[in-house]
## 1
Amino acid sequence: MKKTVDNLNNLYKPTFENTDKMTKFLGSHCVDHALDFHYGHRIKINEKFTNELYPIPLFRFKLQGIKTEVFFDVYTNKNYIGYIKLYPKKEELLSFNIKIFESLKYLVYGFYNYQEKINFENLEEARTKIEQSKENKFIIYADFENLEQIFNIVEMLSVRPNKRFSMANYKCECGHYITVDAYNGSCPVCGKDSTFKRKFATKCPVCGTNGLKDQYGRGECDKCGWIFDPFVEEQKDNVIYPNLISLNKAKKLYSEGKPFEPNLDEFIEALNCYSEMQFEYNGIYYAVEFVSNGEDEYDIELYNSKTGEAFIFKTTDDFKNNAKVEGKLLKDIWEETTDRYWLQ
Ligand SMILES: [Zn+2]
Ligand SMILES: [Zn+2]
């Protein structure tokens, strides 16, 4: 028994050294990752292959939104320490820069149909084959012989934030052990927000209730629905993203027990901020947008999403005074409109 344990320890030692380096590297690049185990490999003990199942460690994370797994094998030789698998969807594969894998022996094949291999020697042909494929998901597979090769791939496909961060380790509800950037982190396996995601205590500037904001000062009041934003508090009388009314107007409406709804002037102020707005009237949605008139200037377009009709206004005043829906002036029926929001 002792001999078996010693053998296994020796066998796993180099692998765990690699996984330690890998987790440090992913951490320094703020790549949220889970360390997991995968069964299904024959390994070599005392120069002999055994066909028993052995667990090998694997990392799960995402690169540019694509599900990625890196396996560190226990059986290794000078050309092989493990393999990487990316699982791009069809659209992701079509826009993927496969050159990143050029220094490795890689394979691309259909997720369900392993026979469906994509040959990237001719990019045009590969594109056509992917487009015509019945598969919606693919696998990019490559063996690697040293950690540098994997680090290079992660480096090329990840964006390292320049903000300071701290890592957090925890067991997610989905059962995986996770290491995440504690500012932005979410579980790379199930997508659930980390309980370590940074939150700071704050007081709602509208109703005074205690609330939580994130590192950017964003958050939402549970009581009145006001969305916290650090810039709003500097310009209390202006409509500023992400709210549709000014802070002072919200305070007034709150004290009167009224909902936070923009009047037409505020709607236009929000339009100046967002460029695209919407409202609903009699069950029909209308879009209000700035559109280029081809002379480096912008007109305002009122678009009826049901009939496809569009009306153009030269200025915000023109829009405010003359825009009509169902033959009625918008300013006269504004109170009857609903779902005023930025364009969804
Ligand atoms: Zn999870
Ligand atoms: Zn509030």
## 2
Amino acid sequence: MNHLDFLLEGEAILVTDAFNRRYFSGIEHEEGVVIITRSKTVYFADLRSYDILEQKTKNSLVTPMVMKSFESIKEYLASKNARKLYIDYQSISVAEYKRYKKTGIKVVDGSKLIGKIRQVKSSLELENIKTACDIAQKAFYMTLPYIKAGVTERAVKNRLVNAMKKLGAEGESFSTIVAFGKNTAVPHHETGDTKLKRNQPILIDWGCKVNGYCSDITRTFFYGKPNAEFENTFNLVAKANLVAQNKIKEGTSCKKADSYARNYFKSFGVDEYFTHSLGHGLGLEIHEKPFLSPKGKGSISKSVPFTIEPGLYYKDKFGIRIENTVVLTENGVISLTGDGRKLLII
Ligand SMILES: [Mn+2]
């Protein structure tokens, strides 16, 4: 549970979105409304799911409450003398908005505030992300011996996902991408039935969830003997990844962060082949603020986990991406997913 002691008396945050409810209450529940005030967090649920919710809140600081109708929320807000209500405008309907507005309480858009709160992680949240990173990495090494000529992308994906589950993950944090040969040149390739042949590159982009928290890694490696062009390109991507990791500091804007890798590629005349943004924050959702891109808003601060994932893609030839989940600490940006910048040949 995340305390919001910066909220003033008379202010409240009301969230309905599933990720936001889980974030602010620490409880995963199928439905409901969470209201956070300076001193208290309450979780309203329908009578049908209230008993389950009551069980879930037993060892937490969250107070479960029954929502009989909209009046229940109205009464609660009145009892808290709420005068200003932050609501995530991105997750309510116009009808709901109008209903809250009618209560006479000043309703304001809380989406920016909520996004800002969610991007900085508590030590507990970071622990979960770190465990998710460790499991994803271990699962990768468990899967490697299985990758041989004739194996399909799908088979490798299933093996990797099962390994993560065996190691205690709840599941994938997004649908795992396994790409062989020229499929690696498609950044969001859909894992299919392509079989691996000798002397082909392999790209795997995967991650898992632990207590709801995500990890995200990409490794590009080679089955057989890579040619010089592949090796040189790999080294460029590896260096871009390192440059970005070393240069990002407290307060670096998202735009600037992206430009570190992009300008490095530019100095070799290959920036046009870096066709996506440098990275993204992650937490309960695989893509969260901050977004490290040429148009990204905001900046990087401590305890914000995000990805660094430069890549170069040559259509019908090959693509290379090296992605780590990282976090900014007192000692600079550290990777939670190891290095990945030395070409692995299997
Ligand atoms: Mn990613």
